[in-house]
Amino acid sequence: MAAKLLNDPSDVVQEALEGLVLLQPGLNLLEDRTTVIRADRRAAGPDDPAVPVAIITGGGAGHDPADAGFVAGGMLTAAVVGGIFSSPGADAVYQAIRAVTGAAGCLLVVKNYTGDRLNFQLGAELAVADGYRVELLLVADDVALTQSDDNAGRRGLAGTVLVEKIAGALAEEGRSLDEVAALARLVAGRVGTVNTGLSAPTVPGVPTASFELRDDEVELGLGIHGEPGVRKIRATDADKLIHIMVSRIATERGIRAGARVVALVGGAGATPPIELAIATRAVVRELELRRIEVVRLYCGEVMTSLDMAGVSVTLLALDPEEPAVLAALDAPTGALAWPGHGVDAAPSLARVAAPLPDAGVPEDLGHPDARVRAAIDVACQAVLDSETELTHLDQQVGDGDLGQALARGAYGWFDDPIEGDASHLLRHLSWIARRDVGGTSGALYAMGLLRAAESLERGGDWGEALAAAVDGVAGLGAAAPGDGTMLDALAPAATAWADGPAAVVDAARRGAEATVGAVARRGRASYLGERAVGYPDPGAIAVVRWLEAVVTAQPTAV
């Protein structure tokens, strides 16, 4: 099991809430409770006229930022937090109601899990007996489950956060409890969510994951407490997975062409932001294909399951006759975790032309050089054939991106073919390296190719061009042979040029092999120090692979 940033597992919830209160202005912790409240909403009793309607929620811990992370102006008044994936007790709910509820009353927003439902209902009854006005709203937005007697009912998932935002905004306006509860119930009845798990969560102090999942499986339709999903499906790409999820919500909530929706894409706790962005794009594309208008789009961690990787999709259909829903979502809130800060318009994927030349090719290409063009073709194909090898090597000493990066350049060459003399072909390949490869390798290859092209234009031969490329790479990278970079293969190859093609390749190989036992002083491997010893430099191996291919295919091409 991976290491965790924890102290005593039994103190996780208390310590996490203390950290939250330190980060989110205007919060208090109730003494001897894991309950977070707004400091400006303390109530003096059930007849206190000074506080507006309170919005109270809660449930088991481990879903951060829900629930306590949304306690702030314009959203929640209090959150009652239990143990990890465990409902808080009824007395904690009762004390939270007493702490923040006055004459205006309170709305309890409860996720439809048995423990939450029972404890919040009992806490509400205790408060009502003391003279408090309490409305309880169950949120059951989990459309992966069917409504039947075979289960405990549809669960409350990320859609709960939209309900809380809308109720909190209305309460902040000073609306009555009846008005707040009515709109919140309407929203809860329309919102639908599907969760998908890509990995299982691990509970603090428990040595094993909550469920087993193979690398080629995902859990579809799971809850937020680490329980398995409705079914396992074969892992697939983001677009197909989102299609399955959106289809389920649209079917269950009757969302058809012409509808206007709010979409929320949520992470499960360990999903990288880059994957959430891809999922968000997929949701919008899927809805556009269905001719459903996305009026508001949110993405982020809202209701997680500890360290689980996964994604949730939530859709809320809007009624044109109810502008209050959209206004409440757009209303300001002090909750730092709310993903809608600054979002008050429909999403738009606008593209503008980059202020750069649209091609790296001059008008006069010179006399076409078929041999050089063929040699570059062979070199690029060698790069593609070596992608897996280079990726594996780079994972040992770097960030694992070299194979993909160079492959992008190779594909760019094949996708954007030109004919021209040798210098123009190298300049074009340099431009492709700048455009497509990126990273350190993109800059170094672009510089080396540019210097080689300039050497040819000055009348130099191929040996001089290769030497110029070495100088360009060394100057830009502030590196020298022996530093553990591509120069360890490229520089010996240039030195051996006069001895013929076989000597060039042999020198490059020996240079690359020498990086195995040396400590790198430049490049990505230099960050690992002696830990990288025993592995060849991936950049040097890449040079060997394309040189080998060129010499094998066309030993007299250059």
TrEMBL record:
GO process annotations (BP): glycerol catabolic process
Domain of life: Bacteria
PROSITE patterns: DHAK, DHAL
Iron keyword on record: no
Keywords tagged on the record: ATP-binding, Kinase, Nucleotide-binding, Transferase
Matches recorded under Pfam families: Dak1, Dak2
DhaK domain span: 8-338
SMART domains cross-referenced by the UniProt entry: Dak2
An example Gene Ontology CC term for this record: cytosol
One Gene Ontology term of the molecular function aspect: glycerone kinase activity
Stretches assigned to the DhaL domain: 370-552
Protein name: DAK2 domain-containing protein
Taxonomic lineage: Bacteria, Bacillati, Actinomycetota, Actinomycetes, Propionibacteriales
